[in-house]
Amino acid sequence: MRKLKLQMQITVDGFVAGSEGQLDWMTMNMDESLSSFVNHLTDTSDTILLGRKMAPGFIQYWEQVITQPDSPEYSFAQKMVSIPKVVFSKTIDKIEGQNVRVENGSVVEAVNQLKHQSGKDIIVYGGATFVSSLIENRLIDELHLSVNPVAIGNGMQVFKSRTPLKLITSNAYPCGSVVNTYEPQ
Prior knowledge:
The chain is of the alpha/beta class. The chain has one domain: Dihydrofolate Reductase, subunit A. Helix content is 27%, strand content 28%. It contains five helices and eight strands. It has helices at 32-43, 55-65, 74-82, 107-115, 128-136; strands spanning 4-11, 45-51, 85-88, 100-103, 121-126, 142-148, 165-172, 178-184. An eight-stranded mixed β-sheet has the order 4-3-2-5-1-6-8-7. α2 (55-65) packs across α3 (74-82). The two termini are 18 Å apart.
């Protein structure tokens, strides 16, 4: 069975976005070793899950980067565009973008069905509300939380209740981020 892996940036005080969804606190200048880790997670996955609120910006961003072959993000953008993406929504049934489909059914049923298909693992990037529902329904098998060296005081969180986790690995990177990998207990 395929695993559902979360790769998400988080502040040291536990927020994944500012109170209005701001992401200006994220460490964007990743060093080579952190980029290599993110690439490895992507390369071991063949499906991306996204929530409706995050999907348009995510899809538009990466599709814009592939129009710029000189961009340092170009090769990663090619992956983000070519990997099939499933956007979960109860309010829309279509979203513009390459290799994108919208899932309107039960999150639990749809994710479990995807996990039972053959292929590589599945990766989820967000957003906060969607990831929170995946955590609440115990659908995530691995959490790769990239802790940024910043506190923002308030904002959006993905953990809404006590969630026991088992630390698998913790790696610090020269850019100041620490990636903690957990499994749910």
